[in-house]
Write a structure and sequence with these properties.
Layout lengths: L4 E4 L5 E4 L11 H8 L2 H10 L6 E2 H12 L9 H21 L3 E4 L4 E4 L7 H4 L7 H33 L10 H29 L1 H9 L3
Helix pairs in contact: 2-3, 3-4, 6-7
Length: 216
Protein backbone atom coordinates (compact mmCIF):
# COMPACT_ATOMS: atom_id res chain seq x y z
CA UNK A 1 0.00 0.00 0.00
CA UNK A 2 1.48 3.35 -0.87
CA UNK A 3 0.46 6.92 -0.17
CA UNK A 4 0.79 9.34 -3.07
CA UNK A 5 -0.55 12.74 -3.98
CA UNK A 6 -0.93 14.79 -7.12
CA UNK A 7 -0.30 18.44 -7.87
CA UNK A 8 -1.03 20.51 -10.92
CA UNK A 9 1.82 20.97 -13.40
CA UNK A 10 2.49 24.00 -15.64
CA UNK A 11 0.04 22.74 -18.25
CA UNK A 12 -2.56 21.84 -15.67
CA UNK A 13 -1.60 18.15 -15.75
CA UNK A 14 -1.51 16.13 -12.59
CA UNK A 15 2.04 15.48 -11.36
CA UNK A 16 2.55 12.84 -8.63
CA UNK A 17 4.49 13.93 -5.58
CA UNK A 18 7.06 11.59 -4.03
CA UNK A 19 5.75 9.75 -1.02
CA UNK A 20 8.13 11.41 1.43
CA UNK A 21 6.75 14.83 0.51
CA UNK A 22 3.22 13.87 1.49
CA UNK A 23 2.23 14.64 5.07
CA UNK A 24 1.03 11.34 6.59
CA UNK A 25 -2.51 11.45 7.89
CA UNK A 26 -2.35 11.20 11.70
CA UNK A 27 -3.73 8.13 13.40
CA UNK A 28 -5.85 8.47 16.51
CA UNK A 29 -4.38 7.26 19.79
CA UNK A 30 -7.05 4.57 19.97
CA UNK A 31 -5.92 3.26 16.58
CA UNK A 32 -2.27 3.32 17.62
CA UNK A 33 -2.98 1.49 20.88
CA UNK A 34 -5.18 -1.04 19.10
CA UNK A 35 -2.45 -1.86 16.59
CA UNK A 36 0.24 -2.10 19.26
CA UNK A 37 -1.78 -4.45 21.46
CA UNK A 38 -0.62 -7.36 19.30
CA UNK A 39 2.94 -8.34 20.13
CA UNK A 40 3.86 -9.46 16.62
CA UNK A 41 2.84 -6.11 15.18
CA UNK A 42 4.90 -4.32 17.83
CA UNK A 43 7.95 -6.45 17.08
CA UNK A 44 7.44 -5.94 13.35
CA UNK A 45 7.52 -2.17 13.76
CA UNK A 46 10.53 -2.42 16.05
CA UNK A 47 12.37 -4.45 13.42
CA UNK A 48 11.50 -1.92 10.71
CA UNK A 49 12.39 1.09 12.86
CA UNK A 50 15.09 3.17 11.20
CA UNK A 51 15.10 1.09 8.00
CA UNK A 52 14.52 2.86 4.72
CA UNK A 53 14.93 -0.13 2.43
CA UNK A 54 12.58 -3.05 1.86
CA UNK A 55 13.12 -6.19 3.93
CA UNK A 56 12.17 -9.75 3.18
CA UNK A 57 9.30 -11.45 4.96
CA UNK A 58 11.58 -14.37 5.78
CA UNK A 59 14.14 -12.17 7.59
CA UNK A 60 11.39 -10.32 9.45
CA UNK A 61 9.60 -13.50 10.52
CA UNK A 62 12.82 -15.12 11.75
CA UNK A 63 13.77 -12.14 13.89
CA UNK A 64 10.27 -11.75 15.33
CA UNK A 65 10.19 -15.47 16.14
CA UNK A 66 13.60 -15.21 17.83
CA UNK A 67 12.42 -12.31 19.99
CA UNK A 68 9.22 -14.12 20.90
CA UNK A 69 11.06 -17.28 21.95
CA UNK A 70 13.95 -15.42 23.60
CA UNK A 71 16.54 -17.14 21.46
CA UNK A 72 18.64 -16.49 18.37
CA UNK A 73 17.65 -16.88 14.74
CA UNK A 74 20.10 -19.76 14.39
CA UNK A 75 18.52 -21.69 17.27
CA UNK A 76 14.91 -21.38 16.08
CA UNK A 77 13.01 -24.55 15.25
CA UNK A 78 11.20 -24.89 11.94
CA UNK A 79 7.88 -24.90 13.80
CA UNK A 80 8.68 -21.60 15.52
CA UNK A 81 9.68 -20.02 12.21
CA UNK A 82 6.62 -21.30 10.38
CA UNK A 83 4.13 -20.22 13.02
CA UNK A 84 5.29 -16.59 12.94
CA UNK A 85 5.76 -16.54 9.16
CA UNK A 86 2.19 -17.67 8.47
CA UNK A 87 0.73 -15.27 11.04
CA UNK A 88 2.55 -12.29 9.56
CA UNK A 89 1.85 -13.32 5.97
CA UNK A 90 -1.88 -13.91 6.41
CA UNK A 91 -2.88 -11.33 9.00
CA UNK A 92 -0.62 -8.76 10.62
CA UNK A 93 1.24 -7.39 7.62
CA UNK A 94 -2.02 -6.99 5.74
CA UNK A 95 -3.41 -5.01 8.67
CA UNK A 96 -0.40 -2.68 8.79
CA UNK A 97 -0.47 -2.30 5.00
CA UNK A 98 -4.16 -1.41 5.05
CA UNK A 99 -3.45 1.40 7.54
CA UNK A 100 -0.63 2.72 5.35
CA UNK A 101 2.02 1.99 7.97
CA UNK A 102 3.99 -0.32 5.68
CA UNK A 103 4.11 -1.20 1.99
CA UNK A 104 3.60 -4.96 1.82
CA UNK A 105 4.14 -6.79 -1.44
CA UNK A 106 2.61 -10.15 -0.61
CA UNK A 107 3.61 -11.74 -3.93
CA UNK A 108 7.28 -10.78 -3.61
CA UNK A 109 7.37 -11.17 0.16
CA UNK A 110 8.83 -7.71 0.83
CA UNK A 111 7.95 -5.09 3.43
CA UNK A 112 8.91 -1.43 3.54
CA UNK A 113 8.25 1.07 6.28
CA UNK A 114 6.33 4.24 5.37
CA UNK A 115 6.51 7.73 6.93
CA UNK A 116 3.21 7.02 8.68
CA UNK A 117 5.03 4.55 10.92
CA UNK A 118 6.81 7.48 12.58
CA UNK A 119 3.65 8.11 14.61
CA UNK A 120 4.39 4.94 16.59
CA UNK A 121 7.89 6.01 17.67
CA UNK A 122 6.89 7.66 21.00
CA UNK A 123 5.26 4.40 22.13
CA UNK A 124 7.13 1.68 20.31
CA UNK A 125 10.06 0.84 22.53
CA UNK A 126 8.09 1.18 25.77
CA UNK A 127 6.31 -2.05 24.80
CA UNK A 128 9.23 -4.49 24.57
CA UNK A 129 8.00 -7.75 26.16
CA UNK A 130 11.17 -8.12 28.26
CA UNK A 131 10.79 -4.64 29.78
CA UNK A 132 12.75 -4.77 33.05
CA UNK A 133 10.51 -2.30 34.88
CA UNK A 134 7.41 -4.30 33.94
CA UNK A 135 9.06 -7.52 35.10
CA UNK A 136 10.09 -5.96 38.41
CA UNK A 137 6.53 -4.71 38.99
CA UNK A 138 5.08 -8.18 38.37
CA UNK A 139 7.70 -9.67 40.68
CA UNK A 140 6.80 -7.24 43.47
CA UNK A 141 3.09 -8.01 43.13
CA UNK A 142 3.72 -11.76 43.18
CA UNK A 143 5.90 -11.35 46.26
CA UNK A 144 3.11 -9.45 48.02
CA UNK A 145 0.51 -12.12 47.27
CA UNK A 146 2.99 -14.75 48.40
CA UNK A 147 3.20 -13.06 51.80
CA UNK A 148 -0.59 -13.10 52.09
CA UNK A 149 -0.79 -16.80 51.39
CA UNK A 150 2.11 -17.56 53.71
CA UNK A 151 0.40 -15.61 56.47
CA UNK A 152 -2.83 -17.53 55.92
CA UNK A 153 -0.96 -20.82 56.06
CA UNK A 154 0.80 -19.89 59.32
CA UNK A 155 -2.46 -18.71 60.88
CA UNK A 156 -4.30 -21.91 59.91
CA UNK A 157 -1.47 -24.14 61.14
CA UNK A 158 -1.33 -22.27 64.43
CA UNK A 159 -5.09 -22.53 64.87
CA UNK A 160 -5.05 -26.28 64.28
CA UNK A 161 -2.07 -26.71 66.57
CA UNK A 162 -3.71 -24.72 69.34
CA UNK A 163 -6.84 -26.83 69.03
CA UNK A 164 -4.93 -30.09 69.17
CA UNK A 165 -2.97 -28.88 72.19
CA UNK A 166 -6.19 -27.66 73.84
CA UNK A 167 -4.79 -24.22 74.47
CA UNK A 168 -7.00 -21.63 76.23
CA UNK A 169 -9.74 -19.95 74.20
CA UNK A 170 -9.15 -22.25 71.21
CA UNK A 171 -9.96 -25.43 73.13
CA UNK A 172 -13.59 -24.38 73.42
CA UNK A 173 -13.94 -23.95 69.65
CA UNK A 174 -15.39 -26.91 67.79
CA UNK A 175 -13.79 -28.07 64.55
CA UNK A 176 -16.98 -27.12 62.72
CA UNK A 177 -16.15 -23.48 63.53
CA UNK A 178 -12.43 -23.75 62.86
CA UNK A 179 -12.82 -25.07 59.31
CA UNK A 180 -15.01 -22.13 58.11
CA UNK A 181 -12.52 -19.68 59.64
CA UNK A 182 -9.67 -21.26 57.66
CA UNK A 183 -11.80 -21.30 54.52
CA UNK A 184 -12.47 -17.56 54.85
CA UNK A 185 -8.77 -16.86 55.50
CA UNK A 186 -7.83 -18.42 52.15
CA UNK A 187 -10.90 -17.67 50.02
CA UNK A 188 -10.85 -13.88 50.46
CA UNK A 189 -7.20 -13.40 49.36
CA UNK A 190 -7.66 -15.94 46.55
CA UNK A 191 -10.74 -14.16 45.22
CA UNK A 192 -9.00 -10.76 45.50
CA UNK A 193 -5.92 -12.11 43.72
CA UNK A 194 -8.02 -13.47 40.85
CA UNK A 195 -10.01 -10.24 40.52
CA UNK A 196 -7.00 -7.92 40.44
CA UNK A 197 -4.96 -10.23 38.18
CA UNK A 198 -7.53 -11.26 35.57
CA UNK A 199 -10.88 -9.49 35.91
CA UNK A 200 -9.88 -5.88 36.63
CA UNK A 201 -7.49 -5.48 33.64
CA UNK A 202 -10.24 -6.69 31.30
CA UNK A 203 -12.92 -4.32 32.59
CA UNK A 204 -11.28 -1.25 31.08
CA UNK A 205 -8.70 -2.33 28.49
CA UNK A 206 -8.31 1.10 26.87
CA UNK A 207 -7.18 2.73 30.13
CA UNK A 208 -4.86 -0.21 30.83
CA UNK A 209 -3.23 0.05 27.44
CA UNK A 210 -3.03 3.85 27.69
CA UNK A 211 -1.20 3.60 31.01
CA UNK A 212 1.21 1.04 29.55
CA UNK A 213 2.15 3.14 26.53
CA UNK A 214 2.31 6.43 28.45
CA UNK A 215 5.14 5.20 30.68
CA UNK A 216 8.29 7.20 30.15
Amino acid sequence: MSASSNTAGPAGDSVPLPQEQVEPHPLSKDSIFHLLQVQRRRLTLQYLHGRTDAVSLRDLAEQVAAWENETTVEQLTSKERQRVYISLYQTHLLTLDKEGIIEYDQDRGTIKRTPRADQFNPYLFDTVPQDSSESSTDSALNHRWGRYYLGGTLFSTSLFGAKLLQLPFVAELAFRFILPIILVVFSIPAASHYYTRFVLPETNPIESVTQLFSRQ
